[in-house]
Amino acid sequence: MGSSKSTLQHIPNAQELIQETGFSPAHIQRLYERFDLLDRDQMGRLRVPDFEAIQELAENPIGDRIIGAFFASGKDTVDFPSFVRVLAHFQPTDANRSRDSAPEPYTSPNRKLRFAFQLYDQDRDGKISRAELLQVLQEMLGLQVSDEQLQSIAERAIQEADLDQDDAISFEEFKQSLEKVDIDQKMRIGFLS
Amino acid sequence: MRRCGRVKTWLLGTFFCSLLVFGAEPGQTHSGEQRNASDLSGIPIVTFKWHHVEGPYTVALWVLVAGVGKLVIEANHHVTAVIPESALLICFGFVLGGIIWGADRVQTFSLTPTVFFFYLLPQIILEAGYFMPNKLFFSNLGGILIHAVIGTCWNAATVGLSLWGCHMGGAMGDLDIGLLQYLLFGSLMSAVDPVAVIAVFEQVHVNEVLFIMVFGESLLNDGVTVVLFNVFDAFVSLGGPAIDAAEIIKGIISFFVVAFGGSLVGVLFGILLSLLTRCTKNIQIIEPGFVFVLGYLSYVTAEMLSLSAILSITFCGVCCQKYINANMDERSVTTVRYVMKVFANGSETMIFVFLGISAIDKTIWVWNTGFILLTVLFVLVYRIIGVFFLTWIQNKFRLVPLDFSDRVIMSYGGLRGAVAYGLAVILDEHKIKERPLMIGTTLIVVYFTVILQGITMKPLVTWLKVKRASSDSEVTVIEKVQNKVFEHMLVAIEDISGQIGHNYMRDKWNNFESKWLSWILMKPSARKKHDHLFSVFHKLNLKDALDYVAEGECKGTLEFVRNENAYIDFKKKCGDDFSDTSMPDLTIDMEDTTIANPYTRRETVPSISLEMHEQTMNGVRESEDINTHHLLQQHLYKGRKQHRHRYSRSHFDVNQDENEVQEIFQRTMRNRLESFKSAKMGVAPPKAISKHQKKDALKQFHKDHV
């Protein structure tokens, strides 16, 4: 890995990204190389097929959902800053302590949970409806589980989490049902190269 | 009933043992006998020609006895859960050894180096190499090598030097061993043994990284052990004064030559094997033979060239895996896999039994408390120190550091086994006066590690895991599901960000491999099949993709179609006349050709499924009260991190995890294909409702009949 500052010059907005996301220059460099590798037609933007080319994602039950999470609603390409911003969620929480300039750092438990929440809430209405929950369960469970069983699991889940009885799980309810879980531990990977 | 069976096995076992013992005796006395024609007074109708069959008979009987011993041991699972099988087999060997000793007053059977190194060890290592999880192995190769090379050298040096220091300090009384001999002894004690490691780790389920580190180390350290042993052996022969810098440099060079040479020989034989299997289209029945013969040849060739034989056969297995699995006929592959496991299992059993028998031999009962106790102590202590130090260094560079319990298990899992014993027996009596003591000590160390450490390994692992386990008190459904989601999420993000492995090198290697190696070493038809179905789905021409699948399905070569849980099917089937629609519909097919079931022909599917659907309706309604937690526990897909390492000596089922991966893969592909289809062709995907009915019914039917 070469020196940090000079090689970042060809990456647009590198400094702002560093400030915003809390990644180190080495990390940004590494991520740019990865972005470049994935970008097969070299347009500077990633498309769904670029993600789908990663073979391991096809073997992941929620692989396509994760891919979807990179794309802001309505857009069908991902540029490098968006790519980095999504991945910023997965740093350890304390990585961001020194760069406190952002209003809410990407690595805060709240942001992380919001990311997880949005995996369920595909229509972005701020609530996980029964149908959306069912869809996720269907993807996560083996095919031996019948529809009736799926329904009952979803039912149980909503019963446990839905506090205001509106038959859907809002973000606050979601957060509360997961308060015992160490979010930071569950949603982090190391970015050492 | 069960007690009856156990008594029977005991009786049988005793019978065969006595046969062996008494068979050995006449063998001794009649061996020199010759039959002269003039001695005969009449034509003998039946004669007892023991000496005629002595050799083969003894061998066969030993194999039988070892097998029966294993039977007896496996009869009771309560015992094997606590004491590992290897320990029990050694004890069985003690018993047998005692019987033979009692009968003959001398140990007629013991584990000779020739038998061990040429007839018992190769198949175990071949099996290890063939079933090695390559991706895991190569991505952790750096760590493995560090432990194999540096760790083993450290073990050898420290054990040897410490023992010598203690000797100088007078802790061992009057022994005739010099520094060089101590170093020699240290080097043969240093090798972590693959046989013992597998035997113990099979019962203790550790995570795959840990497993591959210890197992890989046990395989690769042979290169070092062989070099060290030979170098010090030569030094001992030369004598102290003759050793100067030149000799030491030669020793270091020989390490590189032996290690890399051995691996190279293995790779060459692997390539040869792959090429051979490529050409066996017309006579598939002899394919398995080639595998075993060439594997063995790689071992013996390396041995002939004084290179590392274990490394050679390991790399032969590692390299040829992919190609021979692709080239050979399905049945040949099954045969090879099963037979390898049979051989490996058998060899392992015999090795442990003989290790037990070899103990009951007066010639090695030389007791020197200081020497023995100190050896055991140093072997254990220096292993722990070595591992902790090396992993500390490694952790500075590792993505996911090895934590404390991992390191404890790694150090505790450094078991010594038959290889050490074999090397000890090779020692020359004339050069090394205290050979019996060394052999005895080696055996004691082996027993200590295999039996004691084997027994305590499982409790240790459980204890360590308990420390980290989170309280599983009242976990809600959401928590459970979400935890799984997190797991899958992390794996996906790791894949997207390219975290695992050194991507650049691996990509280059994959390109090289798929362009050149596959072209040379794989059959054209296999190459096409091996063309990951994945890339096929990305071909822009949908029709092409569908044709490809249909064609492959027709030939029966598409693995996922043969899989019982397969769902993707296309109406177009060659030979069948359903195919009038140009737009294939995604429906379900159960192509289970192994069982003669009524629904291999698609026409019968709807009627049967509807019938079954009605019958099982009641059952379904009742099952609505099933505990959701139980369901979740059973059916949530395991994340990739949790897939157990697929390595098990005695289990040969189609891997559950593979089925799971297949399921997910197909589902993802189907979803993508559907959205692709609707985008490209403007055709609405098949209605979900009708599909679900059929799918449900078939699932129920399938579930009731599995």
TrEMBL record, chain A:
Sequence ranges assigned to domain EF-hand in this UniProt record: 108-143, 149-184
Q: Name one GO cellular component term.
A: cytoplasm
In terms of superkingdom, the source organism counts as: Eukaryota
Q: Which Pfam families match?
A: EF-hand_7 (PF13499)
What keywords would UniProt list here?
Calcium, Cell membrane, Cytoplasm, Lipoprotein, Membrane, Metal-binding, Myristate, Nucleus, Phosphoprotein, Protein transport, Repeat, Transport
Keyword Acyltransferase attached? no
Its localization reads:
Cell membrane; Cytoplasm; Nucleus
Name of the protein:
EF-hand domain-containing protein
> Which organism is this protein's natural source?
Knipowitschia caucasica
Automatic annotation (TrEMBL), chain B:
Which keywords annotate this record? Antiport, Cell membrane, Endosome, Ion transport, Membrane, Phosphoprotein, Signal, Sodium, Sodium transport, Transmembrane, Transmembrane helix, Transport
- The transmembrane segments are 55-73, 85-103, 115-132, 144-164, 179-202, 209-232, 252-276, 305-326, 338-360, 366-389, 409-427, 439-461
Report the domain of life of the source organism.
Answer: Eukaryota
Recorded GO terms, molecular function? potassium:proton antiporter activity; sodium:proton antiporter activity
Which GO BP terms apply? regulation of intracellular pH; sodium ion import across plasma membrane
Q: What does this protein do?
A: Plasma membrane Na(+)/H(+) antiporter. Exchanges intracellular H(+) ions for extracellular Na(+) in 1:1 stoichiometry, playing a key role in salt and fluid absorption and pH homeostasis. Major apical Na(+)/H(+) exchanger in kidney and intestine playing an important role in renal and intestine Na(+) absorption and blood pressure regulation.
What name goes with this protein? Sodium/hydrogen exchanger
